Amino acid sequence: MDETHLSGVQTFMGMPFSRDLSKAKAAVLGIPFDCGLHAVRLGARTGPAALRTGSTLVRPYQPPLYDFNVIDELGAVDCGNVDVVLGDTAESFRRIEEAVWGIVESDTIPVTFGGDGAVTLPQLRALKRKYPDLAVLHFDAHTDTYQDSPAPAPGANRPEYDPSTTFSRAADEGVIDAAASMHVGPRGTISQGGVFDFTRSKGYGLISGEDMAALGIAGTLERIHERMAGRPVYLCWDMDVFDPSCAPGVFTPTWGGLTAREGLDYLHGLRGLDFVAFDVNTLSPLHDVGGMSAFLAATVAAECLFLVADQLRRAK
């Protein structure tokens, strides 16, 4: 693994800090980058550090589902953080892509921590190199498949990348198969009209928050499995899919989201899909309360590791 753009930090769940992936079936990686474009809520760049701190409350066994030490099972390591350049999106994206590719080309499954939702795009570029039929499963209060936002001021340039257009760019670049991908959980008030129609026009499947409530957990999971069975899947879990009552420290909080129990039930219900990468993003520690969002984000990341272990056991 190329170590040029990595730096060491406190480790996730106390796992070894290492860039030696020769025996690792999964590796975690922090991506402390945000575009700095949100009008009132900045701080997602500090997400990886807070998530690792929250992970001190997460244990490696989870009976009855996973009554084994997941870190030992996977030989999991913490690769530290990507050495991003705040304010330079293009260079940061290049470094993110290369750092993630270093994990993927080693036949290790990455579990990453953002950062805002923009950090997903360079990771998809890395995964596309190995998985030409890559599909994305995106849990979020927003589709992040918006049309370009207006320029911020008269004469000002529109940013080439921002968190709201991550999956618009992904579809345009062809780094994923949009027809096999889906967004789950969009809800609440947003900044422009026609977003759901625009999202579907890019080829994505969409299960809104309203649809989730009507279908229930079992019905929603059935639709997910029907669409994504047999495809290499990248799970993108935006923490604002949770309700702010259990995850206040997120980039764009939106009422009416999942409870912690519901979110964990969805994660457990994803067993059986062929996961090749995970990212947990938009934790915004500056807006957290008592570290509860960071603890929940760390739990989600641990669930991703358990999903890796489960699929490897199924493959035996």
Overview of this structure, please?
By secondary structure, the chain is α/β, with parallel strands linked by helices. It has a single domain, classed as Ureohydrolase domain (Arginase, Chain A). Helices cover 34% and strands 15% of the residues. It has nine helices and nine strands. The chain has helices spanning 47-54, 70-74, 89-104, 120-128, 166-173, 195-201, 209-228, 260-269, 292-315, and strands at 6-7, 26-31, 77-82, 109-114, 135-139, 182-184, 205-207, 232-238, 274-281. The chain has a nine-stranded mixed β-sheet with strand order 1-3-2-4-9-8-5-6-7, with helices on both faces. Strand 8, helix 8 (260-269) and strand 9 form a beta-alpha-beta unit. Helix 1 (47-54) crosses helix 9 (292-315). The longest helix is centred in the C-terminal third of the chain and has 24 residues, at 292-315. Residues 150-156 have low confidence and may be disordered.
In short:
With 316 residues, this protein is an alpha/beta fold. It contains nine helices and nine strands. Helix 8 (260-269) links the parallel strand 8 (232-238) and strand 9 (274-281).
Morphology call: globular
Average pLDDT level: 93
Q: Which regions are unreliable across 5 or more consecutive residues at pLDDT < 50? A: 150-156
Largest sheet: 9 strands, mixed
Counting H and I runs of at least 4 residues, what is the number of helices?
9
First-residue to last-residue Cα separation: 27 Å
Give the name of the CATH architecture: 3-Layer(aba) Sandwich
Strand order of the largest sheet: 1-3-2-4-9-8-5-6-7
Computed CA radius of gyration, to the nearest angstrom: 18 Å
How many structurally independent domains? 1
Structural class: alpha/beta
Give the beta-strand count: 9
Strand proportion, as a percent range, falls in: 5-15%
